[in-house]
């Protein structure tokens, strides 16, 4: 039995309903309610969204059960607690790269052409025409050169003729070359030098919290737009607000926030009040195609767990495999159903 949290179930209902290998049922997303549903259904596996699960979930599932993240980011799952409980944690890498990359470029183009203001003007019966800029020939700095960052580089370089600079992890040597990048460095200031757009594609690790802070924002130019389709925790939103209000930054286009739904933190300005800010409700991966692929990938990982093909899974906590004897009970139950 697989329980799928409500929001994720709606996004790919046809895929979950038509699954021939696994019985899938929708379930509440709130941890306490999800735990109750697990115990009532005697479910072994769950498919969950980005919300944080802090404790009871790890006690409700049997050893060998799967917590399958519907998406890539997994900061809401406590991998240490899951490992201690003998639970397999997975995500869906690769299947949403194109959707997030396309949304990144959409936000970039919207900023370049002052699209939100123009559309609002017409909707209000005005006809205000503000000159924009072309993306062709502009410099894009990509911070985080993983799969999504590389997808953005490909579209920006081949589709728009942009010059792309990449910034890899500062604690590791930068790759000598990457396709579609003019240069790759592990130094942030070098990557963003003269950048017209800076796009974030970093993980939400503890080390990356507020990576974009007042010091790094000061490295950006007055014509620079900041794009974030990665994770909200990467950006100090208070520092960003101040940079935007002061004119030290041209604008920001954000799909992710420190608090979702977006709410300004105490002492921070409200980004919604600024004309040079574009905000979308974390929809970078929310396309019909990506949702289907994420559902298929999550269910495939669960099917692999049922087949005890653990090494073929997209495991986030491979250390759990040190003692697979804990999974025997779940395997026996699966054989009986």
Question: Would you summarize the structure shown here?
Answer:
Helix content is 35%, strand content 14%. With 337 residues, the protein is α/β, with parallel strands linked by helices.
Written overview of the protein:
With 337 residues, this protein is α/β, with parallel strands linked by helices. It folds into 2 domains: 144 residues, Rossmann fold, CATH 3.40.50; 183 residues, Rossmann fold, CATH 3.40.50.720. Helix content is 35%, strand content 14%. It has 13 helices and 12 strands. The chain has a 7-stranded parallel β-sheet. A 5-stranded parallel β-sheet has the order 2-1-3-4-5, sandwiched between helices. β6, α8 and β7 form a beta-alpha-beta unit. α6 crosses α8. 44% of the residues are buried.
Attribute tags:
Rossmann fold, alpha/beta, disordered C terminus, 35% helix, five-stranded parallel β-sheet, 13 helices, seven-stranded parallel β-sheet, globular, 337 residues
């Amino acid at each position: 039995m697989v329980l799928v949290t409500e929001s994720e179930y709606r996004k790919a209902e046809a895929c979950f309903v038509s699954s021939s290998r696994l019985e899938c049922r929708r379930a509440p997303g709130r941890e306490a309610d999800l735990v109750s549903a697990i115990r009532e259904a005697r479910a072994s596996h769950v498919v969950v969204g980005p919300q944080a699960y802090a404790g009871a979930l790890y006690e409700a599932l049997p050893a060998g059960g799967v917590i399958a993240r519907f998406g890539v980011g997994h900061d809401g799952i406590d991998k240490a607690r899951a490992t201690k409980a003998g639970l397999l944690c997975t995500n869906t890498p690769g299947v949403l790269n194109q959707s997030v990359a396309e949304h990144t470029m959409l936000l970039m183009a919207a900023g370049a052409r002052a699209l939100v203001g123009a559309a609002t003007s017409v909707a209000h019966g005005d006809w205000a025409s503000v000159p924009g800029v072309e993306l062709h020939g502009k410099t894009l700095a990509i911070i985080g050169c993983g799969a999504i960052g590389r997808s953005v580089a490909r579209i920006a370089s081949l589709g728009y003729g942009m010059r792309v600079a990449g910034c890899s992890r500062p604690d590791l040597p930068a790759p000598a070359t990457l396709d579609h990048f003019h240069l790759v460095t592990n130094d942030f200031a070098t990557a963003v030098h003269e950048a017209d757009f800076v796009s974030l594609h970093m993980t939400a690790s503890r080390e990356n919290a507020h990576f974009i802070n007042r010091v790094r924002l000061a490295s950006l130019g007055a014509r620079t737009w900041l794009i974030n389709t990665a994770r909200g925790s990467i950006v100090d939103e208070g520092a960003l607000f101040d940079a935007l209000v002061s004119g030290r930054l041209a604008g920001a286009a954000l799909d992710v926030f420190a608090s979702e739904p977006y709410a300004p933190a105490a002492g921070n300005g409200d980004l919604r009040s600024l004309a040079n800010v574009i905000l979308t409700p974390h929809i970078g991966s929310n396309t019909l195609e990506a949702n289907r692929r994420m559902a298929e990938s999550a269910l495939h990982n669960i099917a692999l767990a049922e087949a005890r093909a653990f090494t073929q899974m997209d495991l986030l906590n491979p250390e759990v495999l040190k003692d697979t004897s804990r999974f025997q009970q779940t395997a026996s139950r699966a054989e009986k159903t």
